[in-house]
Amino acid sequence: MAATHDPLLSASPWVKRFAPQIPRGSLVLDLACGAGRHAIYLAQQGFSVLAVDQDVSALEKSKTARVETRALDLEGNIWPIPEAGFGAIVVTNYLHRPYLDRLPEMLGKGGLLIYETFAQGNAQFGKPSNPNFLLNSGELLALASRHALKVLAYEDIYTDEPKPAMVQRLCALKEA
Predict the structure, then answer these.
(1) DSSP letter at 100?
(2) What's residue 61's pLDDT?
(3) What distances in angstroms separate CA 40 from CA 50, 103, 137, 148, one per listed residue?
(4) Full DSSP string of 113-139
(5) Peptide bond preceding 7: is omega within 30 degrees of 0, i.e. cis?
(6) What's the pTM value of the predicted model, to 2 decimals?
(7) Rounded to an integer, what distance in angstroms lies between the CA atom of residue 35 and that of residue 31?
(8) What percent helix, strand, coil does the chain show, rounded to 5?
(9) Residue 34 has what DSSP assignment?
(10) Residues in CB range of 88: below 8 A, 6 or more apart
(11) CA-wise closest residue to 47 among 2, 98, 114
(12) What residues in the chain have per-residue pLDDT under 50?
C-alpha cells in the first residue's frame, strides 16, 4: 500500500508551533519550498501562501488552493522577490547567506520569521556537510539582532527527528 502525503504530519513541528501566531489574513512566503509541505500546511490553516523555489513542479501537481507557486532562481545575481509586507516568512532546510538579510526587510509589521536549518556540527551525521550550508553558532540570533527583531524562540541543538542532525531554529517578530 502506498503511503499518502499528509502535510499535517510532514510539516515541521517548529513551523506548526508558530503558525498560529502568524497574523490572520496576511500573505506568507514559503522560501525554497521544495515539495511544498509547509505551503500546503499553511494553506490548510487558512493562509494565502507564495511558494517559491527553483523547481515548483511537485507543488504545482497538488493544485492547492490559496498557494501561488513561482519557479525562481533564489541564488542568482539579482534577488527575484520584489514583494514586501509578508505576515510570515518560512524557511526550512535552506541557507543562502548573500540574501539572508533581505528576509527581515520583507516582513510587514507584526510579521514572523520562522527559520529552521542545519547548523555547524551536522557533517558528523551526513549531508549537508559543506560549511556554506550550515549556520554558524548564533547566526540566526545575530540576524534578528541586526534587524531589531524580537526573538520569540531560538534553538541551536542536536535532534534525532526526522534524522540525526544539528539544527538551528528561530522564530522572531518584526514589532509594530
Answers:
(1) T
(2) 81
(3) 11, 21, 31, 30
(4) EEEEEEBTTGGGGSS--SGGGSBPTTH
(5) no
(6) 0.92
(7) 11
(8) 30, 30, 40
(9) T
(10) 19, 22, 23, 26, 28, 29, 47, 107, 111, 112, 113, 114
(11) 114
(12) 1-5, 7-8
The domain limits of the chain are 11-173
Instruction: From 139, 20, 159, 39, select the one nearest 92 (Cα to Cα).
Output: 39
Instruction: Check: CB of residue 95 under 8 Å from CB of residue 134.
Output: yes
Question: First and final CA of the chain: distance in angstroms?
Answer: 50
What pLDDT is stored for residue 9 in this prediction?
55
Rounded CA-CA distance 143/83 in Å is 20
Q: Which residues pair with 48 in a beta bridge?
A: 27
Q: Around Cβ 114, how many Cβ atoms within 10 Å? A: 28
CB atoms within 10 A of CB 132: 8
Distance between CA atoms of residues 116 and 79, nearest Å? 21
172: which 3 cell numbers?
522572531
Say which CATH topology domain 11-173 has: Rossmann fold (3.40.50)
